[in-house]
Each structure stands twice: as structure tokens, then as C-alpha cells.
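Hey, can you fold this one?
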Amino acid sequence: MTATQPEVFPLVDGGVPDRTARPGRLRLAVGLLIGAGAIYFIVSSSGGFADAAGAVTSARPGWLAAGGLAEAGSYAALGLLLRRLVGDRVSRRNGVRLGLVVAGLGNVLPAAPAEGLVMAGAELRRRGVDSRRTLIALGLMQWLSVRTLFGVAALDALGVAAVAQVRYPRAAPGRFVLAAIALTVLGALAVTAWLASRRQTMELVALVGGRLRFWRPSLPASERRARGALWHAEILEALGSRRNQAALAGVALTTCLADATCFRCALVAVGVHLKPGMFLFAYAVAMITALVPFVPAGLGVVETVVPALLHHAGVPLPTALAGVLAYRALGTLLPAVAGTAALIRLRMADVVPSAVTAPR
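Sure. Predicted structure:
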């Protein structure tokens, strides 16, 4: 009699079976089905695959090349941002590689960007960065990047609402709603920045977090507060002086604007010319819709929402779709391929972990 074959799971770091692999594949399959359905809907609505494909093939290569260079600049800035948060323990080249792993490869995986952050964290620890500093650096990188994106989107939405007041006076209700949403987002960014700067906030997070972990013995409240205060102190140390914090914000803004430049080049390559306000608004919508859960990189959602928005602004739907597809090739597909190569290169490298001072 043949013995029953035991269930086999892929191994993660340390030889522990990864029992999340199958749910991850299921999420990926569901996300791809949703994305494929959305793409089919928008392509069919735009006049068929032939029209969209023809618009893509007629794209001007010079503008596509410029978009590729802009996207490379975006990842160079992201690598610089990570290196400023981690310190000199990571070279400039490896900083860019880690950025590609997080935002390039990690962006197309089922639980984006969690997988990219985990893989980048493993490489940082392998290079001697302690676990606490790794979590802080990667967390701050995401915090700064996402806040910059929402800040740019909110400011641009205010600009669009102001312009609409002059050019489209009959669109008052929509204009006021857009302005209200933008002001709410800016207010939320200001409040959360103030809360994050306070030691008491981190202490409260540590207190609540300790209670939520019901499967482990709860530490005394005083000890949980002390841990929260320690995390706060180390976050402030990673951020550094006000001058360094301004530099970090500038680098995060550069990353966002370089990626937006890639988007602009992709649109111009297929003949779409938008005014700066509308272009930045369309870009912000593309980035926010890419955050939809269960759909890797917002596949299908971005290709549905953004062409519809551009079409509402007067762009033919096949041309709008072609511009978005060109941008996705430059800003999503190529970074994912480059991130895969970067991860392989990082894992092949023989490293000698440097001595790292334990957190005080």
C-alpha cells in the first residue's frame, strides 16, 4: 500500500513552511481575473482590441525612451530615500536594487507591497541592519511615499476645482465636492503627521497592540509604554534633524514626480497632450486606484478608470487606453522585471554583515 503523500508547502527563511503560499496564489488568480475582466470591458468599449493595439504600435519611441529614463530616475531617488533611512550600511547601488524589489517586483505580487517589503527586509538584515532599524526604514519609506502621493493628489484636485470654477461654472456641485475631498485629505495628512510626531501616540499604539496580541502573555502596561517610547525615539533618530527630514521629503517628492514624468511621456508618445493640472490629476487617480486590494498593481482597475477620466477630458478612448498601457509597460512591467533581476543579484552576493550597534 502506498503511503498518503503529505501536503508540501514552500519553505521561507529559516526552513519554516510557508502556509500562506496557496492563499497568495488564490488572491493572485482572483485579482488577475478581475483585472482581465476590467481590461476586456474598457477595450471592448473603446472600439475593440485592434484600435487600442494600433494606437500603442504608433507610439513615438523617443518619448517612450524618455519615459523609461524618467522611471529609472524615480527608482534611483527611491534607492536614495531608503539609503538615507538605513545609513551607509547599504551602498547606493544596493539601495536602488532594494527599491526595485519593494516597489517594482513587490508591486505586482498578490499582497503588494508586503512581499516586496519582506524580501527587502531579509536582504537588509543579511547585510547587518538590525530588525528594528529595518522595520523603521521600510515603514518610513512607505509612509513618506504614500503621503507624498496623496498630498500631490489633493493639491492638484484643489487646482482642478479652482480652474473648473472659471471654465465650467455649471459644474459647481462636482467642483465643491472635489475641493471638499481635497481639503479633507490635506487635513488628515496634517493631523496624522502631528500625531506621529508625539511620543504619547506611539505609547498608546504599544499599549493597544499588546492587548490585541491575546495569544501571548500580556506585558505590564509600564513596560509596553516604555517599548512604545523606545520605538518613537528610534524613529526620530532615523528621521534625523529637520534639515534631514526636509531632504527626505524632497527625495520622496522627486520619486513621485519622476514617475509622473514617465506617465506624461507615455501619454505624449501616443499623441495625448493634457494641461499640467489635468495630467497630474489623472496620474494621482492612476496611483490611488493601483492600491486596490487583491488586484496586483491595480491591474484592470487603472486601465478602466484612467482612460475613462481622460476620455471625459476629450481624449479618444482608444488613444487614452494606449497611453495608459504604454505607461504600465514602462512603470509596472519593466520595474517588475528589473526588480526580479535585482533580487537575484542581491541574493547571489556574498556579504559579511557589519557590526551594528544594538538599539539603545
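The chain has one domain: 44-348. Let me know if you want another pass with a different chain boundary.
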